[in-house]
Amino acid sequence: MAANRTKTKKKSIKRYIPLYLMALPGLVYLFINNYLPLPGLVLAFKKFNAKKGIYGSPFVGFKNFKYLFATKDAFIITRNTILYNLVFIIVNTILAIFVAILLAEMTSKVKKAYQSFILLPYMISMVIVSYLVFGFLSTENGFFNNTILRALGKDPISWYMEKKYWPFILVFVSAWKGIGYNCVIYLASILGIDRSIYESASIDGASKWQQIFKITIPLLKPTIIMMTLLAVGRIFYSDFGLFYQVPQNQGALFSVTNTIDTYVYRGLLELGDMSMSSAAGLYQSIVGFILVLGSNLIVKKIDPEYALF
Amino acid sequence: MKKKIASLLLSVTTAAMILGGCGSAAETAVDTSSQTAETTTTTDAGASSDAAATSDKAAQAIADRKAEAEKSGEYEKVIISFFDWTGRPAGLDRINEALSEHTRETLGLDVELQIIDSAAYGDDMKLMLSSGEQVDIFSTCILGYNPSINNGYVLDLEEDGMFDDYCNGIKEKVRADYLDACRVGGVLYGTPPIKDYAIETCAVVVGQEYLDAIGYDTSKLSVGDLGYPKATWDDINDIFAQLHEKFPDKYVFAIQDNELTQGSSVDNIAGDYFGTLLDPQNSLKIEDVYSSDIFKEWVQRAYDWNQAGYLSQDALTDQTGASAKVKSGSYMAMMACCKPGYKTQISGECGRDMAVFDVGESFMSSSSVSSFPWCVNQNTEDPVATLQVLDALYTDSVIEGLMCWGQEGKEYKVNADGTITYADGVDANNSEYYPNVLWLMPNPYVTYVWEGDPLDLGVQMAAFNDNCTCKSKALGFTWDNTDYASEYTALKNAYDEYGPKVVYGFVEPEQGIAELEEALKAAGLDTYMQGKQEALDAWAKENGIQ
Predict the structure, then answer these.
(1) Residue B390 lies in domain
(2) What is the pLDDT of residue B328?
(3) In a domain, B525, yes or no
(4) In the structure, how many helices (H) and strands (E) does chain A have?
C-alpha cells in the first residue's frame, strides 16, 4: 500500500516535472529577492555601522521601534492607514464586482473597448495621476474652480488647504485607479461560471436580478474572499504614491493624508538611518502577517471551505 | 504530496538562508582582519621612518607605488565619487584616461572619477559604502556629513598622523579654522570644498527687462560691498507695486520657503530650524525662531504680498524652483542669497539679464563650512594613497582642471584674457563633460575661471569669506540628533503641516504663527531644543568659546 503510494507519487512528480521547471525561474527569483535578504531583518534591532557591517553592529533591542510610537502622530498615521485601507477594500471590491457583472452581461462588440478603458487608469503612474488631479483641483487654473464652481456662481476653493474634502478625493482616486484591475479578475471568475446554470435558472423563471444575487455572487465568493484576504494582508501598507503624490505632499493636509509609509519616508529621508527604516518595515510586515492569519482563521471558523490555508 | 514539496522547499530555503548568512558574515570577518593587517603594516612603516622628513614620506610612498606598478604592470586605482545633475557624462572615460596619465607620473597611481546622477547619488553611495564596493574619496553632499559619520562610512583622516604626513597641500589651501569646523567630536573626518562659506542674505533679483519697462533707475541706490545696489524693503515694495501695476498678468514674486535659510542671519544649528541662534554673532543661546520677531516680520511681508496679489495662489503646490519660474516668463522676481559672481550665475539660471538688489548682510552660519566636506571611505584599501590623492585635489591644477572643466580643445578653449569658454562647436547641451557642480569641487580656484567671471574670483571669494561681518560663534558645531529622531520627525511633520502656509502668506500671521507654535510645542520642541543646548554648551566648553 505504502509502496504503491510512493510509486504513484513518483509518477506524478515525473508527470509534473515540466511544470516545476516552468516554475523554477519564478521560484529562484522569489528566493533571491524575498528570502535571501531575510537575515538582514536583524538590522531592525541594531544600530547600523558600516565599519562593523550588518552582523557586527551592536544590538540595541527595541530602540529603533520606539521612534514609531513615541509621538502623538503614531495614532493619526495608524488610524489613517487602517481606515483608508478598509474603505478602499470595501468600496473597490463592491465597485469592481458591480462593473465586472455589467461587463459580463454585455454582449455588444464594444465590450472589449470598455474593458480596456476601465483598465487604463491602473497602468498610469501615480505621479501622472497626481497631475491629472491637480488639473482638476488647482486653485487658479483648476477645472473645478474655473469651470464648475464659476458656472454655479460659487467662490473658488483652495482644495489643497482644506482637509475635509480629501478623504473623498483619495477614495475616489483609489477607486478610479484600482477598479479596472480588480474587475478583470472578477470578470474572469464570472466567465468561468458554467453557463448552463444560468440557462436552467432562466427556464425556471429567475429574473436577471435573481440570477445575479443567487448565482453569480455566491459563486464569486471564493474569489472575493481570496482578494480580500490578500488586501487585508497589506492593510498596514499604504499606497505611497496615492498618499504622497496625489495630495502634492501638502503639509496642510497631513492629518488626513499622513500614513505610516509617508511618515517614515519623510522622517527617514533626512535622517538616512537604515536601522529605523528596517524597524518600520518589519513592524508593518509582522502586523500584516498577523492580520492575514487572523482573518483566515475567522473565515475558517465561518466556513472552512473558503479558507486560504 | 504538495505538502512534501512545500516542506522541502522550506527546508532548502532555510538551509540556504543559514548558509548565506554565515557566508557573508565570515567574509566580513576576513575582510576586517586583512584590513587591520594592512593598517598595522602602514603604521610600522610610518614608525620606522619617523625621523625622515614629512615630504620624504610622501615621496617615498609615491616611489614605492611606482616600483610596485613596475613589477606588476598595473597601477593601483583610487576612485573618487561625486554627483552631477545629468548623470554619467559621455566623455568620462576619456577624462579618466587623461587623469590617470597625469597621476601615474605625479602620484604613481590611477584615478577614476565616478559621477552619479544627483537623484541616485544618495542611495547608490549608501549601498556602495555599506557593501564594500570600491569608493575611496566621496563628497558627502546629499549623503550628509553627520549621517555618514554616524553610519561609520568615513575614515578618521588623522589616524596615525596621516593627515600631517600626506596632506600638507590641504593645510596650505584651507585655513586651519575652516578645517577645525569640520571636526566632529574632535575628529577630522573630512575636508571642506573651497567655496563661499559666507552668504549675503536677502538678495532680491528682478528681471532687468521688467525694471526697464517701469523705468526704474537703480543708480539712485547706493552700492554695497559686492557691487550690487543696496535696497531697503520699502524700496523693494515700491518696485513690486510698480511691477504689479505694469504687468497685471504676471506674478511679481516667486516665493519659496527660504525666508530663514537665505533671507535671515538666524543660525540653523545642526541643519534644522527647531532651535536656533537668533543672534549667532554674540550669543550661544538656543531659541525658538518661530516665535521671534525675525520670523514674524517675514511672515507679515509674505502675507502683505499675497494680499496685494503678487503671489500665485498655487504657490503651495507648485514645486518648481524659483529661478525656473522666472525663466518661464510668468514671474518677475525672486529672493535668494548672493556672493561674488552671483549676477552671472543667476542670470544664467533665469535665462535673462537679472538685476540684483542687496537687501541683507553677510553671514556665515555654524554649518556653512561643514555642510558637505569630502571624505575618505573607512574601507579604502590604501589610506596613504587615497589621502595623497585628496591632497592633490586641492593643489594640482591639472587634476582640478580636468575634474571641473574637462579637456582643453575638447570641452573648452582658453580665451585671450585667460578665462575659458566652450570649445568650438560645443555648448552646454552637447558637451561630453560639463558636470556644472563647481561649488562641490575641492578647489576650483587652482584652475581656470569661466568667461564672465573675474580672473581673481578665488581671491575675491576668500576675501568675502574673511570679511564676513556676522560670523556665527558656533562655527563648526555639529550635532548628532539620532537620539532625538522621534522628536525630529514629529517636528518636521508639524512644520510641514503648519509652516508653509504661514511662510507663503496664506494665513493671517498672528493666527498662523500661533497654530505653528502650538503644533511644534506638542511635537516636543522644548525637549529637542534642550538637547541642542546641552550639546552646544558642551562643545563651547571643549573649544573654549564663551
Answers:
(1) 47-195+369-452
(2) 87
(3) no
(4) 16, 0
